[in-house]
Design brief:
The chain has three domains: 15-116, Response regulator (Rossmann fold), CATH 3.40.50; 144-218, Helix Hairpins (Orthogonal Bundle); 222-373, 2-Layer Sandwich (Heat Shock Protein 90), CATH 3.30.565.10. Helices cover 52% and strands 17% of the residues. The protein has eleven helices and twelve strands. β9 and β10 form a beta hairpin. α2 packs parallel to α3 (73-83), α5 (118-180) runs antiparallel to α6 (186-218) and α7 (228-238) crosses α9 (263-280).
């Protein structure tokens, strides 16, 4: 809601710009405003000058004459809301329903007829600022809703596509066994069952990612100091089967700088990075974990010995969900987008560095925990 009275958010006087081409009216309003405790920070004699002064001095509210040379008050208000939204009170020599409607359409918060008295002037400024705050909040909520709807539409398409492929394979192999079991050898049946298990796990992983995303989006957590060595140990324990199968070498650091975060979410980040390293590292994979202190932040990284990524592929990683439907890299995308979502929600950032043929380094940065934490 708006601020009531003659003071701004930090109890400082409200700064007013007067846009009025009649000198006597302007001086009368100027004196009235100062008597009420407002500060007049500028005076314009036409609409274009009003727009220029709003951009230059950024007042808290504008008193805008309806009829001025060069650019009228309606056009000037429209330009102000396009360039630097500011509460506007419209001044006019007369009042009609049509004029008030036109003023409201361009964002005017209050409308008063010349010459106002002190009470009318103060009330109009208060109402205009309150309506402006409500309008800007409504704009923000609408923009946020549109962005979320766009993201949800794209995300639904991605998930449907990712589930469709393993589901189709699962149905195909199961159907083959059902229809032709008598004609299949034990080896063929075992192979089909292996494919069924593999694709069922792929679907389960997608469902797990969905559940994680829902949890993250709904949860408001309080970050705390992390024991990163313990978090990484838990992540490695979850991936132990894959590590053994791939005969991977995992190189851990001796020093683990402490950062602020949320342990279960950061563990998912490491699981994602490590899983990608196991899949796309060398044969066998060699994964090295390290860190570097950057001012008040710590950058943790994981380097693999895989084939690396081109500059174009690097630019397409970590994309928000709304863009994944058109730009995806096999094996990366949904998981790395969740990684980005997690780290950014914890006030950090993600990155990838890679040279084709020389492996990749995936990293994330989080605020360093103070020694007193």
């Amino acid at each position: 809601m708006g601020i009531v009275g003659r003071r701004g958010p930090q109890s400082s006087p409200i700064r007013v710009l007067i846009a009025e081409d009649d000198y006597l009216v302007s001086q009368m309003i100027h004196g009235m405003l100062e008597g009420l405790g407002y500060i007049v920070v500028g005076e314009a004699i036409n609409g274009q000058e009003a727009v220029d002064l709003v951009l230059q001095i950024q007042p808290d509210v504008v008193l805008m004459d309806w009829s001025m040379p060069d650019m009228d008050g309606i056009t000037a208000t429209q330009r102000i809301f396009e360039l630097h939204p500011t509460p506007v009170v419209m001044l006019s020599a007369y009042s009609t329903r049509d004029l008030i409607a036109r003023a409201g359409d361009v964002g005017v918060g209050a409308y008063i007829v010349k010459s106002p008295n002190r009470l009318e002037l103060e009330r109009a400024i208060t109402i205009a600022r309150a309506r402006f705050d409500d309008m800007m909040e409504l704009r923000r909520l609408n923009a946020d809703l549109q962005a979320r709807n766009k993201e949800l539409d794209a995300f639904a398409g991605i998930v449907a596509h990712d589930l469709d492929t393993p589901l189709a394979l699962l149905i195909g192999y199961a159907g083959t066994i059902e229809l032709f079991s008598e004609d299949l050898s034990d080896t063929e049946v075992a192979t089909y069952l292996e494919h069924i298990v593999t694709n069922s796990r792929r679907m389960a992983n997608i469902v797990d990612e969905l559940l994680l995303l829902v949890q993250i989006r709904k949860s408001e957590v309080k970050p705390g100091p992390l024991q990163m060595d313990s978090i990484v140990a838990h992540a490695l324990e979850r991936l132990q089967d894959g590590i053994s199968t791939a005969k991977a070498e995992i190189v851990l650091p001796e020093i683990w700088p402490q950062v602020f975060g949320y342990a279960s979410w950061v563990e998912e980040v490491w699981v994602n990075y490590l899983s990608n390293g196991l899949k796309y590292g060398g044969k066998p994979p060699r994964l090295e974990i390290g860190s570097v202190v950057l001012g008040t932040n710590v950058r943790y990284w994981l380097r693999d010995n895989g084939g690396g990524l081109t500059q174009e592929e690097q630019a397409r990683l970590f994309q928000p969900f709304s863009r994944l439907d058109t730009i995806r890299i096999k094996g990366h995308g949904l998981g790395l987008s969740i990684v980005r979502f997690i780290i950014e929600k914890l006030d950090g950032s993600v990155a990838v560095e890679s040279v084709k043929g020389e492996g990749s380094t995936f990293s994330f940065t989080l605020p360093m925990a103070s020694k007193s934490s």
